[in-house]
Amino acid sequence: QVQVVESGGTLVQAGGSLRLSCTASGLSLGDYAMGWFRQSPGKEREGVSCISSRGTTYYTDSVKGRFTISRGNAKNTVYLQMNSLKPDDTAIYYCAAGCGASGTTIIASRRTYWGQGTQVTVSS
Questions:
Q1: How many of the other CB atoms lie within 10 Å of CB of 43?
Q2: Considering only CA atoms, which of 116, 86, 110, 124 is closest in space to residue 2?
Q3: Would you state the pLDDT for residue 122?
Q4: Per-residue model confidence as pLDDT tens digits over 85-114
Q5: What is the pLDDT, as a whole number, of residue 31?
Q6: What's the CA gap between 92 and 48, in Å, rounded?
Q7: Phi/psi at 55 (5° precision)
């Protein structure tokens, strides 16, 4: 059984930083791209960032230069370092095992495993 678990979401002031963590288990994830998606109230879920099994990174335009995605040594762990946070970054952030990019759009793969989400709130 695949499990994807995120952590690190909290309330932070605008301009602050936050690091989200995610660990996936239950299958061989060495070849899986892993990434982050987010969803705000009334909006569709959007891709934020994705990192391939080889370490190639992709970001949606709104977070470029502010967010950094990385993988742990165990390959089944992924982090999202978020700096210069803005109120518009407020959302539930979901970790995904399985993602890709189409241009600058981060997309879920045909077989994506999702975490339960962690709330990030940025106050102005």
A1: 9
A2: 116
A3: 98
A4: 999 999 999 999 999 999 889 999 988 999
A5: 77
A6: 12
A7: 95, 5
Instruction: Name the burial class of residue 12, with classes exposed (0-12), middle (13-18) and buried (19+) by CB atoms within 10 angstroms of its CB.
Output: middle
pLDDT tens digit sequence for 14-72? 999 999 999 998 877 667 899 999 999 999 999 999 999 899 999 999 999 999 999 98
Q: Which residues, including other chains, have CB under 8 Å from residue 46's CB and lie 6 or more apart? A: 37, 38, 39, 60, 106
CA separation for the pair 36, 94 (Å, rounded): 6
- Matching residue, tokens 């709104």: 62
| SS (HEC) of the chain | CCEEEEECCCEEECCCCEEEEEEEECCCCCCCCEEEEEECCCCCCEEEEEECCCCCEEECHHHCCCEEEEECCCCCEEEEEECCCCHHHCEEEEEEEEEEEECCEEEEEEEEEECCCEEEEEEC
User: Torsions phi, psi of 64, nearest 5?
Assistant: -60, 135
Phi, psi of 87 (to 5 degrees): -55, -30
